[in-house]
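INFO  loader      accepted 1 record
INFO  loader      residues=117
INFO  predictor   begin
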Amino acid sequence: MPTVTFLNDPGPDGKPKSIEVAAGTSILEAAKRAHAQVGYACGGVCACSTCHVYVRSGQATLSPQKDKEEDILDKAFDVRANSRLSCQARLSSGSVEVEISRESRRAYADEHPESRD
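INFO  predictor   done
INFO  writer      dumping tokens
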């Protein structure tokens, strides 16, 4: 089963959150299951850029980026070569390590005020 690790979102043990998911699962779906702080203002339908993440490793195991994702990423802040919208990036196999963008963490806090410190 593919594994997603959220490098900058530690769990209660202080280690990065990691979760095994079925092939075909999006990074956003994995984040929801792991309770990782990935925002998704549009509900995960590729209409905003709040689920923006940086893929640190495992890029080759993800679904290819499509034109719509590239267009929406143009609206994101601090886009890099390893940027993906987590709602569009689906896992096929292996493991993926991601860093949640500042923009996405901020959106998550706005969407989940109970999570704020």
